[in-house]
Amino acid sequence: MASPAWASAYPECTKTPTESEVSAAKGAFEAGQVSFHEGDYDRAVLYWEDAFQRDCTAIALLLNLARAYELAHHYDRSVSALEAYLERNPRTEDRVSIEKRIARLSGLKSNPPAPQAEKQTTAEAKEEPVAPPPPAEAVPPSRPIWPVILTGGGVVATGVGIGLTWAGQSAVNGYTNGLCAQKNAAGAFQCGPEIVTDPDTGESTTLRSASEVERDAQNAASQRNIGIVVTSVGAAAAVGGAVAWWLLWRDAPEETALTPIVSPERFGIVLSGRF
Q1: Phi, psi (5° rounding) for residue 180?
Q2: How far apart are CA 138 and CA 128, in angstroms?
């Protein structure tokens, strides 16, 4: 069984393009756009064919190629590109209109290619690397912000924990130096009542019972322990965030750039860079 006409021009895509191939394909595509808008459809085809060879997963390029071939009056090649597109994207919503377009183009007579001109253009494409036009705006590379947030949150938590620890420990010291005897490091207390004696009358008044004093002393010890935990977690988060920041940002060069923007819609400059 004979293979369809498009199969030789656009063989099956069996590999995943690398990052460098995708970047080169994008550059070739943008260069082809420039040629297309200048009306140089043959050169646009060369760029776009090069882009598709580098990244065969970009099947939308087949529609660009089909249009450029059509405007260059190479209708048979336009049909091949459209048929290849339908084969690789059979569920496209434009299938009916593309099939009608194929039927219309199939009845037209293509111009014969100009071998000498095409050969010269191909040689130029091989000698000069495809370079994309400069971008309209320089977009600063993204770097993760979560290490900064983690470090900042850790510092805040550490400060809060130190405050809780200091306040709780101060209260515990007040009890152990007065009404209570701390029995163990876990914070269990044995306290007496808080009694105030009137110096004039000699009468004694109980302000807090022994159980109330023990309860308040226990609460102070709990506050101290919570402060220690918060301080430990906050310090760990701050250190972890700082280490992550250093590991993720250490290789980022510090560079800035001013890019002029001039177009019919706007003008000005864009400041971009890594800080």
Answers
A1: -120, 160
A2: 25
CATH number at residue 76: 1.25.40.10
Do 101 and 38 share a structural domain?
Answer: yes
Residues 17 and 101 in one domain: yes
Total domains present in the chain: 2
CA nearest neighbour of 166 among 213, 226, 214:
226
Please name the helix (run of DSSP H) or strand (run of DSSP E) that holds residue 205, with its range, or none: strand 204-208
pLDDT digits (tens, 9 = 90+) for 83-132: 999 999 999 999 999 999 999 998 887 766 544 344 444 444 343 444 44
In a domain, 273, yes or no: no
Tell me the C-alpha to C-alpha distance, in Å, between residue 238 and each of 143, 156, 234. 19, 9, 6
Residue range(s) defining the domain that contains residue 207: 146-252
State residue 143's pLDDT score: 63
pTM of the shown model: 0.40
